[in-house]
Specification:
This protein has about 140 residues and is an alpha/beta fold. It has 6 helices and 5 strands, in the order E-H-E-H-E-H-E-H-E-H-H. Helix 2 runs parallel beside helix 3.
């Protein structure tokens, strides 16, 4: 592929959606953001997306699992990643997804790893190693 991966993000929480979009764009992804099932299905039919990132708990009792099942019917080849802060999402949600990431138990690097795995050839921008706070404080003490 060696091109920007196009990722459809689905989350009813606008703040979470914006943060996820900014993060993905910083690493070279093209992002389509939607907040509900109907918008997600419309975006899938109108765009050639490489991956869906779906929050499990949505507004009005809807779930990401419902979206995942619908997308599997429309585009069975598109990888689906379920995202949730709830460690007790049903096994059926795991079964209809290619990966499940739990907020709090995973980190942004885990998401990038999953994208690289599920979208071979995705041209993500390189990651810089996170500075080690303790090492930088020790260096300052030694030189200062």
């Amino acid at each position: 592929m060696s091109r920007k991966p196009k990722i459809l993000c689905v989350d009813d929480q606008l703040t979470h959606l914006k943060i996820r979009c900014i993060f993905l764009e910083q690493f070279g992804c093209e992002v389509i953001a939607v907040q509900d099932r109907q918008s997600a299905l419309k975006a899938v039919t109108e765009n050639d997306v490489d991956l869906l990132l779906i929050d499990y708990h949505l507004a009005d009792g809807a779930t990401g699992e419902e979206i995942a099942r619908d997308v599997r019917m429309l585009r069975p080849h598109v990888p689906l990643v379920m995202f949730s802060g709830d460690p007790k999402i049903p096994e059926s949600a795991h079964e209809c997804s290619d990966a499940v990431l739990l907020k709090g138990a995973s980190n942004p690097s885990d998401l990038l790893d999953v994208i690289q795995k599920l979208v071979p050839g995705a041209a993500l921008r390189p990651r810089r190693p996170a500075p080690d706070f303790c090492d930088s404080k020790l260096s300052q003490r030694k030189t200062g």
